[in-house]
Amino acid sequence: MTSDPRPVVVAAVRSPIGTSGGRMRDLTVEAVGAPVVASAAMAAADEPVDHLILGNCMGPGGNVARVVGLAAGLPESVSAVTVDQQCSSGLAAVAMAADLVSARGGWVIAGGAESASTAPVRHWRASDGTAGKAYERAPFTPSGWPDPDMGVAADRLARERGIDRARQDAYAARSHARAAQSQAEGLFVDEIVAVPGLEQDERPRSGLSVERLARFPSAFSADGTVTAGNSCGVNDGAAAVAMMHGDEHARRGGLGLRLLGWATCGVDPQLPGLGVVPATHAALRTAGLDWADMDVIEFNEAFACQMLAAADELPISERRICAQGGALALGHPWGASGAVLMVRLFSQLVRQERGRYGIAAIAGGGGQGAAVVVERCQ
Prior knowledge:
The protein has 378 residues and is an alpha+beta fold. The chain has helices at 29-41, 64-71, 89-104, 150-161, 165-184, 210-213, 246-252, 276-287, 304-313, 327-330, 334-351; strands at 8-14, 18-19, 51-55, 79-83, 108-115, 122-125, 131-135, 235-244, 257-266, 296-299, 357-364, 368-376.
């Protein structure tokens, strides 16, 4: 038997994605993440899980992965690491797990968890030692570097790349229609682990037409084209995959996704949405494949203009992205979203057998990107 150290994902699950302040509003990050991690860990059966790596952006801190792991019932011996690469954290966690499994073998659970609803309110400390001004996010870059909010950066990207409002709204309407149809057809059922109060995604809207989207005002600047309708929501959710060494999978057999190439990268902090472009190039290069080989393309739809800019720069049609709906409709639980993409690849390539090769990619604040190329095990 030929040795192949490339890791294989043999289980991939996620929670429903809830709207911040919605039906998951009382669930802490460990309450959101623990059922998902526990479900993914079942793939190891009686063998020990060696490591847990989870992405998280908003805290509450204290090594979220460790808290989630213990809440999920993993043994005390399991090492836990929390990754913060902003929105690309969940996919960066998968890439880190792939490196670990390739080098050391064993079982690793990787993914992400986020509860925007229960994330703590943070304050800058004033010079007199008292709590000063509240802030929603930490700086993405140091002093002297551009540090735009993501919506402002999206408006800039749309303006610089000539992506008009009508095109953004059309993309967003298509994402909602696809997600609503996929939900109605039960295409998400097998990948979702229910959490208290919610069994399916809360956000998709079947009737969100281009005409309705056209009524939304600009969200981030007076003359901008980015709106609440063609942007993702603020969301709660978790996702996790169980990963094992390729040689061990070959010995056992069975279904799975083999990771062929993975990469993380940095880009211009002023245009963070373009992080998917160099990340996908690097991952495809490592995998020895091209865009023409890809059967399923899952990008995180933080903003419609971001997806359109990426499609314009890459040799792909915008219609190939997120064929069953993406984050514009499903939601974007920041630190978990990259792992959600891996779950979506697993569902389409393994559960639904919609091809052989797939790619997941996501951009993050401060100018970050991550991508993973996979193959359905034959």
